Amino acid sequence: MTRELMQLVVDGIVEHSAEVRTLALVPAGGDLPGYVPGSNLPVEWRTGRFNSYSLTGDGFEPAAYTISVRRQPDGDGGSLWMHQLRVGQTIRARQPVSEFPPVWSARRHLLLAGGIGVTPIVSHARSHARWNHDFEVHYVARDHVLAAELAAAAGDKLHLHGSRSDFATTLTDLLVRQPVGTHLYVCGPESMIDAVREAALAACWPSTRVHSEPFAVTLAPGEPFTVRTSRSGRRVQVAPDETVLSALDAAGLSVRSQCRRGFCGECLTGVVSGDVIHRDDYLEAADRDAGEQMLICVSRARGELVLDL
Amino acid sequence: MTASESESESESETRMNVLADDEYENSRIEDFPFPLEKASIEPRVDVEPALAPRSTAAGTWGGRALLVNHNYERCVRIRSRILDRDPVRFTSLPHMLPAQWDAMLFLMRRLGSEYPDDFALTRRADGWLWTNRRLGLEREFAFGDLSSLGMEPLEYIGRQVQEDLLLLDHRSARLYVDTVLVTFSMGWSPTFVVGMNFHEVHGTVPRVMDDGTVDRSERFLSTMPIGELYRRNPWAFQIGGRLDRSKDAFPEWTPKADAYLADPRLDTVGTDVRMRSELSHFVRLPLTGAVLYTISVQSISLEQIASVPEWSASSMRVIKEVPDDLVHHKGFHVYGPLVLPYLERSS
Question: Which intervals hold domain FAD-binding FR-type (chain A) (predicted)?
Fold first, then answer.
């Protein structure tokens, strides 16, 4: 299902350093939807191409969406595009996506940030401050670009570390002195996440209390491909941000559907030929392997797909 | 038992189709969400995006997520009375307070946009103003400040909607029913399920655990895009229009229902027996990601069903074709012998 994109206007830019800038984005019209702490904003930097940036507010009634972007000269170009934006320009974004939420029932929240991974941690800290939750923040970086924002939310619960080796000496002590019921959230370079997970495991933390990976399933865009309908003889292009179902709808070919998220099985369609990428939550493994049917509301294909329609 | 209760009971004993003060006044067929347009009773993930109007053989329904109809004042009054008498029907674990605020704002916004003549949520410099013209209420409140509401947020809004409300928290890859404000449940106990996970809650429903329906439903609910509303429409038959058919209140309503079933009044079965729709909406709330699950109870009489030939036919078909293992769960062993002869006679 293609959701409408939001039009956002760049309202303010703060250059923290040559590498990192913060953008404040306001709606071109209407109100901005609130969001769960730790959410990210998929920004369209080239038609159909999105990069996701963590929102740093607490999500409540945001007057602006703020994101901080690190310049990645060897990336695919999205961050460089973000770095050439000027105040007053309009950009397009999807609704915020929650993939790194706080655990509301936690007795205490231990927040660990490395480098630009600090952005969702700022969001969490602001939310915990709002709700008077018990929390503590550790921010590991050479250059603490968002230290002021974190300090405003966390006060003396914020601890700055200048290097990973410096932090490594305190990590074990930090882990063993947390009360039972504490949840840990780490965002940073993969090597830091691995090190924290390892140390938490060694300190007998249940893995379900250590959060670093997105766990919500979202309908990510994919590569474009072509659908041919064997009975009605139509050819329809499926864009990266579309589904087979929405593309057929748009072409005036209506197919029965219900949940449109790959669960109910209503849009199950026969596959005549094609290399299907199953993304549903309905078909059994054996059915997938057979490749004779697919749920066209979520599943995609490589190259040309011929459907029994 | 109070004087008013004994009065209403003796009255309804003599004439069942006089509406008692704990009963729902039947919906109009023109906007009743008739659940059997597809005439399938197989349990499955029976969800669809909400807010799309659906046409039936008698009219349309579904353009709105919340119900405010001719029963509004009546439902709100019945719920408040139950909550006053049995306060645990609203139970919320402490960590759900942010989700309660989230849910309250969501419901107020929806009421304001779906029924702008009756409800309004207005932003003020230092908070909000909530206006409920149906009940003549105005309340200024500050988000997060309990004293500005005088009670917890879900109870505040729960006393102003027709829907039962549940909040589900997602943690450790499971959904937990951590908040209930449920006074109109059908055969289950809201106070018993608080704190249970999604699997535990559905342990008594035949089939759905083994065939993976519960698993898929849980994954569906916990991965809905934030803010997108979905719906489903479970249903059942019942005797009379009593809204509160909870296990908690068994002693209040089962003796009368049993007595009726032992000696059904065949001349009045068309008005005594009703089809009950429990149209449910669910959404992941914007600020906490908690799942808000709303259930709005409506009913129509067999007589009303019989007035629409398509509804009558699909009701009869569903009762006749229900698989054996679901007969008891749907109560068809009890209601089938009442409903089938009536609908056959009237068609």
Answer: 3-103
Task: List residues of chain A with CB under 8 Å from any CB of chain B.
Answer: 1, 3, 33-36, 39, 59-61, 95-98, 101, 103-106, 130-131, 208, 215-219, 258-261, 263-265, 281-282
Q: Chain A within 8 Å of B151 (Cβ-Cβ)?
A: no
Q: Do B97 and A131 touch (CB under 8 A)?
A: yes
pLDDT-derived band at A216 (thresholds 50, 70, 90) equals very low
Count how many domains chain B has. 1
Give the pTM.
Answer: 0.85
CB contact under 8 A, B47 and A264: yes
Domain ranges of chain A: 6-93, 108-211, 225-307
Radius of gyration of chain A from Cα atoms?
22
Coil, helix or strand at residue B344: helix
**Per-residue pLDDT for B3 more than 60?**
no
Residue A206's Cβ-count burial label (10 Å; 0-12, 13-18, 19+) is exposed
> In degrees rounded to 5, what are phi and psi of residue A68?
-120, 130
Count Cβ atoms below 10 Å from residue A47 Cβ, excluding itself: 9
Give residues with Cβ within 8 angstroms of B281, minimum separation 6. Answer: B50, B65, B66, B229, B230, B231, B293, B294, B296
Who among A60, A105, A216 is closest to B287 (CB)?
A60
Phi-psi region of B276 (alpha: psi -120 to 50; beta: other; left: phi over 0): beta
CATH of A108-211, one of 3.40.50.80, 3.40.50.740, 1.20.1740.10, 3.40.50.150: 3.40.50.80
A80-134 pLDDT per residue, tens: 999 999 999 999 998 898 889 999 999 999 999 999 899 999 999 999 999 999 9
Q: State the complex-level ipTM.
A: 0.82
Residue B84 lies in a domain: yes
**Residue B13's CB: how many other CB atoms inside 10 A?**
11
d(CA A282, CA A268): 9
Tell me, yes or no, whether B243 lies in a domain.
yes
Q: Is domain A6-93 given the CATH code 1.10.1040.10 in the classification?
A: no
Specify if B16 maps to a domain.
Answer: no
**CA quadruple B202, B192, B196, A123: dihedral positive or negative?**
positive
Cβ contacts (< 8 Å) between B224 and chain A: which residues?
A: 261
Tokens of A172: 């074990």
Q: Does B232 qualify as catalytic in the annotation?
A: yes
A11-41 CB burial, b ≥16 within 10 A, e <16? beeeebeebbbbbbbebeeeebbbbbbbbbb
Q: Residue B234's domain spans which residues?
A: 30-346
Nearest CA among A206, A39, A184 for reference residue A103: A184
The predicted pLDDT at position A3 comes to 59
Which residue in chain A is spatially nearest to B106 when comparing CA positions?
A: A34
Active-site position among B44, B139, B207, B232: B232
Residue A164, token pair as written in the block:
């990973």
State the residue for tokens 């909400």. Answer: B50
SS3 at position B193: helix
Partners of residue A258 in chain B, C-beta under 8 Å:
46-48
The Cα A140–Cα A160 span in angstroms is 6
Structure tokens given for B5: 């209760």
For tokens 């630009």, name the residue: A116
| Residue B117 maps to a domain | yes
DSSP code of A155? G
